[in-house]
Amino acid sequence: MKIVVCIKQVPDAKDVRLDPKTNTLAREGVASIMNPYDRHALEAGVCLKEQYGGTVTVLTMGPPQAEEVLRDAVACGADEAILVSDRAFAGADTWATTYTLAKAIEKLDGYDLVLCGKQAIDGDTAQVGPGLAQRLNIPYITYARKINECTREVIRLERMTDDGYDEVEMDLPALLTVVKEINEPRIPSLKGKMKAKKLQITTYTAADLKADPNCLGLKGSPTQVARVFSPEMRGDRSMITGTVAEQVEQLFEKLEDCLS
Amino acid sequence: MDYFLTEEQQMIVDVARQITDELIIPQRAELDEKEEFPHEILGAIAQADLFGLYVPEKYGGYGGGCFEIVLALEQFGRGCVGVATSYAASALGIYPVLLSGSEEMKDKYLPEIVSGTKRAAFALTEANAGSDASGIQTTAVLDGDEWVLNGTKQWITNGGEAQIYTVVAITDKSKGARGASMFVVEDTDPGFSYGPKEKKLGIRASATRELVFKDCRIPKDRLVGRKGMGFIMVMKTLDLSRPGIAALGVGLGQAALDEAVVYAKQRVQFGRPIISFQAVQHMLADMAIEVEASRALVYNAAKHIAAHPESMSKASSMCKVFATDMAMKVATDAVQVLAGYGYMREYPVEKMMRDAKILQIYEGTNQIQRNVIGQELNKEYTRNS
Amino acid sequence: MLRIDLDICIGCGVCEETCSFGAITLEDGEPRVDDSCNFCGACVDVCEVEAITIEREEKAARADLSEWSGVWVFAEFRNKRIAPVAFELLGAGRRLADQLGVSLSAVLMGSGLDGHAESLIGYGADTVYRVDHPALAHFTDDAYGNVLEDLVREHKPEIVLAGATAIGRSFIPRVATTVDAGLTADCTGLEIREEDGALLQTRPAFGGNIMATIICPHTRPQMATVRPMVMRPNEFDSDRQGEIIDVIPDANRLESRVRVLRSVMEEQDKVNITEADIVVAGGRGLENEKGFALLHELADLVGGAVAASRAAVDSGWVSYPHQVGQTGKTVCPKVYIACGISGAIQHVVGMQSSDTIIAINKDPDAPIFDVATCGVVGDIFEILPQLLEKLKARKGK
């Protein structure tokens, strides 16, 4: 089985903090990591490979330094890695991203299953998986939480819904986006790290993809950022002061108002 | 300090560190409290290829030696000596096969160790045979195509959790030290059972049980190496494995030092962080010196052993004594720095102090190690004079 | 392209400080821009000497934008009822439609829809496109996507809104891709720009640390998903009049490549935090599970639900369904009591529209006090037990 896993390099969210004085993101020392949901997608791909045989190809679109997450993925069990990178891709929204990723996947030597995380933690849009499947014209399932069975022809799985889950099946080739509940990602192995170190990473540029320049990057993006600003706080900061007993008394009165 | 590790050695450290930080440290208190065997963590260690660290490449391993396993054990020891012991005991258990086993035996068992599908244990100690191995009473008698084992082994690490046991038994009582042989017993062999799990002061994530052999019949080809070579194999096995125990001491000492320094920087008394008091500074400085000196000795002993397998004993014993005595002292001092908090289960140094004690006892007490060093000195100076 | 005129630039570095994406660095006093630039324009606004410009090579408008008119809401129908988010979207959609002077329509899909289209009209829809078909009984991306796509192509709405639910977030991106529309996920604010009627879609970005306003200048429809509990529904008006149009899709458009074998409802948490009037939430300051026990006691006494910040959920003190914030749920109760929550923006975006916010925290500088209507600086473990005593006494009366 040929499995493709799409991954993204993102800033580590737990390190991102807003500097209260300047109202900008304090990004000093913020590490770049593999999007956590993508790590679960990768694990799902590697588990399927171990169970049913085949190969796992990881693919990322990003600047040259995104190569790091590809090596990380190979250390965790992926076989091949492709970096989709070109200045022309910069500023892409999800529409232009899915266009570019689809072009890259179509350039591969066939595929049976495409795996994505449910969303990236920097954008939180959850749009790339469904959009990519549509462009590849393959069926897809979002929020996959458990793979029950996978043959060369069909995959059966559980999809999370807002109030439970659906058991569904679809024919391959197909695309899945996965949630955290699907598995526990492994720690990179020694042999994997050694392989990752030596691995030759293939880079696809806009020219390699024979892509329409009008569909790439900022120019190909239907959405534009009109303004960026710090969230506003309502901040009337009315504070209850006094001894603990006085504070509790006032708090209690306030609550009583609300409760009655 | 920079020990100028090669790129691959650094990778071993990185993988072991990640397992320690992400899996072992978050679970260690609970494993200790519940005396629970760390199946899941050992599975992750196998998946990360570290069970194959010391196994030759032709059996699917990494092909490393004493130094490589020391690097991994130092990290695991930093997290939890109980978990690390379960890992180390499996290496100890399979070393006789690795050192003296037939090609068929290696083909059968080593790949299972590498993949983590099976674990090993080493069975030497008995009620009357600890430091003095000549008191062994377990016997093995050849009956047609089978060996028949009878006897009881005591305090066997990984007992009941391992599938492959290397067992020392007497095959000819009249020959003394030359009368012991090494066998492989599998968990499913008839006549083989376990005693209850022991309750221990420390390393409570590891399992320790009696092994009971009652007319336990095993095929003839489970004899490891030649008949009568049992004790020599035991000595070689322990010489090879002791730097690993020393590495656990280094890891534990480092962890205790880390906890003590972090606490001393935070804890405020008399209006100042206690690290600003010289009494505390000097304790921390001594701890740091001892940890680093131990590390340097252990690393070099391990490299020496890998390069000179014919003369392992002294280096192996020296690093084991030094690093494990250090671990006990540094862990005790760390509890002292944390004082009341250090004595409470809420902080990890209490467990470190309990765990450190076993390092001075198992795989040959530190007193026995000093005997070995003394005897080696005697031999060396006799030769040279 | 972000262009910096180095002849004008004075190398003050304000752009570097302002850039939320770390895309600008000063080298030898000259700003350089790397690939992480998102073209947000923040640096353009702050540059005092106006040295920075964004040159957009504009894509030719695909079609005459004026052909597209009207505001649409996708009304999710699941488990025999319309999802409440549909009514919230009708509230927001009504406001947008009135400002634009156009009509508001709802698209209702499913099986066995009798009697439901009317309620959409009561909540503000002028027109309901009703697609009632057994093939739509279970949600599938293919069938739902095809039907909505065909309706959009036929009727050309300028705005399409949908709930950011499991269903909305699954099939709306597909529709946006097929009709080449821009789509903004998880909007918290929707406005019409006065001068040209463009939809200003505001959403938290970068884990909620900044807010971004997104526009779709050259494509239609302008599509957005909105999280449940963010918008407010209008009062239900049973006298409102509207038109219900039954749509019969082509059979081949209802085929799905995904087959739903079984749909399972799992037991919901005892209290759904999004529906509670009083939410009692705890964070890192509660220190451990025992701290959360106090919170559960408080919730029982005031008849509220227990919620938590991500820090508390990550620490394992309480399960994920209780998480409020960017990566959890959005809540809008009458009273939100935040105990030991510092108020990181990721949390605040999930609760800031609560009517009353009471915050208890030992750090007087905690940002939670910036959104609180009433703040108490103090030790949770002193205040909560005393408050519980008082509440118990009150209950006793």
Helix count of chain A? 7
Main sheet makeup of chain A: 9 strands, mixed
Biggest interface, residues from each chain: A-C, 89 and 108 residues
Query: What is the overall pLDDT average of chain A?
Result: 89
Largest sheet of chain C: 7 strands, parallel
What is the molecular shape of chain C?
Answer: globular
Query: Given this structure, which CATH class of chain A is correct?
Result: Alpha Beta
**Ends of chain C: how far apart?**
70 Å
The class by helix and strand makeup of chain A works out as alpha/beta
What fraction strand of chain C? 25-35%
- Portion in beta strands of chain A: 25-35%
List low-confidence stretches of chain C.
none
What order do the SSEs of chain A take from the amino end to the carboxyl end, as H and E?
Answer: EEEEEHEHEHEHEEEEHEHEEH
Mind telling me the C-alpha Rg of chain C? 24 Å
Give the fraction of residues assigned to helices of chain C. 25-40%
Which quaternary structure do these chains form?
heterotrimer
Segments of chain A where pLDDT lies below 50 for 5+ residues?
Answer: none
Count of all domains of chain A: 1
